Amino acid sequence: MLGPARDPGDPIPRSDPGRAAWETAVWLDPIRAVTIVDALLGLGLTNRDTLVDVAARNGNLPGGRRALWLFELADGGAQSPPESQLRVRLVLGGLPRPVVQHPVQLPNGVVLHPDLAWPEYRVAVEYDGQWHADADQLHRDRRRLNLLVGTGWLVLHVTSRRLHAEFPAVLREVRGALTDRGWRR
Q1: Which of 121, 128, 115 is nearest to 157 (CA)?
Q2: What pTM, to 2 d.p., does this model score?
Q3: Which residue did the predictor score with more confidence, 110 or 89?
Q4: Could you tell me how many helices (H) and strands (E) the chain has, helices first?
Q5: 31, 89 in Cβ contact below 8 A?
Q6: Any bridge partners for residue 128, and if so which?
Q7: Confidence (pLDDT) at 107
Q8: Strand partners for 118
Q9: 25 CB-near residues (< 8 Å, 6+ apart)
Q10: What pLDDT is attached to residue 183?
Q11: With bands split at pLDDT 50, 70 and 90, how would you rate the model's confidence at 134?
Q12: What is the pLDDT of residues 71-88, one digit of tens each?
């Protein structure tokens, strides 16, 4: 049964962010959906408790298990949509879930936060978007890289081109790094 007719001059009703996250998880492809839910979490528009509640109330509806699975993949610590996409694609590719923005304390007290990390293997992945091509940013990135490598971390870099055009190679490289550091499926 349809509800009452809506006056075309009325504003379009808005979903609350929890419901928007639910609808996103049910209807969009997993990578895009998690990217959006990550952003909702990161902006503080929703939180884990809300997502758990929405999933519990709607779990028996079509798409309920899928939404719960995608909510579990979401992480509000992601700092950009490509970081979210990279993380989800690595997990869907069979790798263990990385920690987002894991704090790595250096001997001098400085704390760095690689985009994605597997702390138990000391492997990190940094997503280098186009702004990383700036000379000053490249300088800061290389200094960070040297500091992380100097403390025993293996750091891989993924560019936009590699994420979108060479992902199978990226997946093999990250899998190889984790395996070399002791990860076993």
Answers
A1: 128
A2: 0.85
A3: 89
A4: 8, 6
A5: yes
A6: 159
A7: 87
A8: 123
A9: 33, 37, 63, 66, 67, 70, 71
A10: 97
A11: low
A12: 999 999 999 999 999 999
Instruction: Give the least confident one: 46-50, 104-108, 168-172.
Output: 104-108
Q: Which of 79, 131, 103 is nearest to 87 (CA)?
A: 79
* Token representation of residue 146: 């040297």
Architecture of 77-185 per CATH?
3-Layer(aba) Sandwich (3.40)
- Take residue 145 and report the two structure tokens written for it: 């890289």
The separation between the first and the last C-alpha atoms of the chain, rounded to the nearest angstrom, is 50
In whole angstroms, give the CA distance from residue 143 to residue 160: 21
Helix (H), strand (E), coil (C) string for 11-67: CCCCCCHHHHHHHHHHHCCHHHHHHHHHHHHHCCCCCHHHHHHHHHHHCCCCCHHHH
Whether residue 113 contacts residue 64, with contact meaning beta carbons closer than 8 Å, is answered with no
